[in-house]
Amino acid sequence: xxxGIVQMKTNRQxxxGIVQMRCSDSAEENKKRxxxxxxxxxxxxxxxxxxxxxHNTRYFCQVESTDNFxxxxxxxxxSTEFFGALAKRLGIVLVTSLFERRTAGLYHNTAVVLExxxxxxxxxxxxxxxxxxxxxxxxxxxxxxxxxxxxxxxxGVLGVQVCWDQWYPEGARLMALQGADLLIYPxxxxxxxxxxxxxxxxQREAWTTVQRGHAVANGLPVVAVNRTGFEPDPSxxxxxxxxxxxxxxxxxxxxxxxxxxxxxxxxxxxxxDLKRSEQVRRWWxxxxxxxxxxxxxxxxxxxx
Length: 304
Description:
There is one protein chain. Helices cover 24% and strands 28% of the residues. The protein has 304 residues and is α+β, with helices and mostly antiparallel strands. The longest helix is centred in the C-terminal third of the chain and has 22 residues, at 197-218. It is globular, with a radius of gyration of 18 Å.
């Protein structure tokens, strides 16, 4: 794939835009509104803009239906052309999230990073695939086969993963060990209607806390962008999902730089000080003190 413009400038502030929005049944309407949000972030000075998971459509994984495979597309394809043209016109790096059709019967949940010249800087295929009520992703997506490798861009080295990956420290660590400047997680996660208010809040806070932990453990900023709004279950078997928004940016000590509301659409730009990671890692040299001679068993499923 074409690598685009890679002249990284990491010793500075990075203006990072996030677009948290509701999705409708119309992919064309969603793309139009996404473009408006991206343009708004660019007008506010964003150099990097991050979108939510599977942003072109509603979250179709609430049901298992072979008809939904019709929404998948190749990479490169129509969406990379659409968003690539937008990235080029605005002069930004753009993190997108697409339903990739690799070939008949083989599909992935794929993040595509587009360079400032509209080219594809790199892709990441979601590695951890959930299979829970209302999140039937194993029906649609094969696990990623590209591993955990950050993507080099003109604004920095981006450790991009997708949603369910955000619960696993291993992926974050591997991205950090390969020089990622920040960790990025496009996301689609929310409440099932039968959960109590107390349980819902525990889930949302756990989601935030585990990712802030990745920031602390690796001395890196984290950008997590979630969708918001209610999406019904087409089968009627559940009460649908209310996505909890709460997109956030955390600094390398887990400090909150920005957190969006749960139930509002948000376009904003957050300044991330990339120099701060260097200083934090000097104070807290976790990479220096890792016992790499003692971790062999971490690759086992369970230690009996």
